[in-house]
Amino acid sequence: MPFAQTRRAFLAGVGAFALPLPARGEEPPPRILEAGPVKAQLLPAPAPATDILGFDGVSPGPILRYRQGDTLFARLVNKTEKPMSLHWQGLRGENGMDGVAPLTQAAVAPGASFDYRRKLEDPGLFCYRPGVFKEAGELLDRGLKGLLVVDEPKPLESDADILVVLDDWRLDAKGAIEGDFSNADEAKGAGRLGNLIAVNGASAPKSFEFQPGSRIRLRLANLASARIMALSFEGGTPSVIAVDSQPCDPFPPVRNTIPVTPSARYELMFDLPATEGAKARMILRAADGRDQDLLLFATKGAPRGAREPVRSLPQNPALPPVIHLEQSKKVDLVIAQDNGRWTLNGRPSKAYAGDPLFRVKRGTPVTLGFDNRTGIPLAMHVHGHCVRLLHDLDDGWEPYWRNTVVAPPGKAKHVAFVADSPGRWALHDDILDHEAAGVATWFEVG
Ligand SMILES: [Cu+2]
């Protein structure tokens, strides 16, 4: 039961799986991550199983779980028929390990392997997924994705810790993945949306039962390739405690709803009602009004005692307390369409083969504007760094860090960050059909 476990079960599990320490000076062997064909029961039985791709025989792939300060040493073994790489979404820095092919590494050919070594300096919820330009969307849609959890030294108190991978599959009537990838019309629109929402690899919803008044830590990741998910909470009290791997002061989301872009992660404490027989749920809001339940909670048994207010995870001291906007390098990216082709700053995009959008010296503050001149929401991802979303009208910013921000149709959004990690960093739309069609560029920190 890897996804939902009580604190006690989790602690017992740590003991049960403790590995012998390697001899001094000897590097432990890599964690092998084999990407290849898998069969999965996505639709409820007796519908047939679906041929998909997974890591180590499962999709979502195994949860990679470490402690803060550990080193992740993983060997991607590519047993698929496509070139591969692994992007580790949310991990800062270490350009050569960012997994964006061909920008930061060569693609890993079918049959080949590649070693990733990442020092895990920040605790939080991360994910891993293919990062090969033009191929990543199909590989992700066929099932290659997984969570990386870096535990904080002192976990916040909760009654349960639930990891949730949300996914969006496009299946035909027989339960097979529809092979209509790289559709030019979809790349001009919202991207390749699916027709089956899955929670941890099985069709939604997923049901849980807890004592009244339980506090549930929910760690959510949207690992779909295109669908921006508006997730609403009903019946309980949600408090957001981390966004895109970085802790924030706990806050109740506006209208009890969070907008989760592809590859974004949110952590919440969800307090269930204090009475027995009550219900609470997490819902996917659909634009057409056909909302869908994703998580269902029922309370049963003796109520738990009253809870203290949700505490804050320690803020990350590695992130800059101030960003000097007045001294920042200001860069604008106008994203438009010309006869159905994406353009960046008025020109057809050369993606990672073109010149960088900008170059800065290490340590430079940067203000970056995403000016969306299209009718389609974009999910713009700045690689290697954590960014602040600036307010539209003043110098303030939202009180949490982001990897990806939504640029709504016809609007400009600005982010600020300190470019403190050297290398060639991708800057692209995390709706991967958009990336493949050219909503992709890069910047260089020297
Ligand atoms: Cu990205």
TrEMBL record:
Transmembrane segments: none
Keywords: Copper, Metal-binding, Oxidoreductase
Domain of life from the UniProt record: Bacteria
Stored Pfam families: Cu-oxidase, Cu-oxidase_2, Cu-oxidase_3
GO molecular function: copper ion binding; oxidoreductase activity
Domain Plastocyanin-like as annotated: residue spans: 45-154, 163-272, 336-445
InterPro entries to which the protein is assigned, alphabetical: Cu-oxidase-like_N (IPR011707), Cu-oxidase_2nd (IPR001117), Cu-oxidase_C (IPR011706), Cu-oxidase_fam (IPR045087), Cupredoxin (IPR008972)
Signal sequence range: none
PANTHER family, A to Z: FI03373P-RELATED, MULTI-COPPER OXIDASE
Protein's recorded name: Copper oxidase
Organism: Methylocystis bryophila
Lineage: Bacteria, Pseudomonadati, Pseudomonadota, Alphaproteobacteria, Hyphomicrobiales
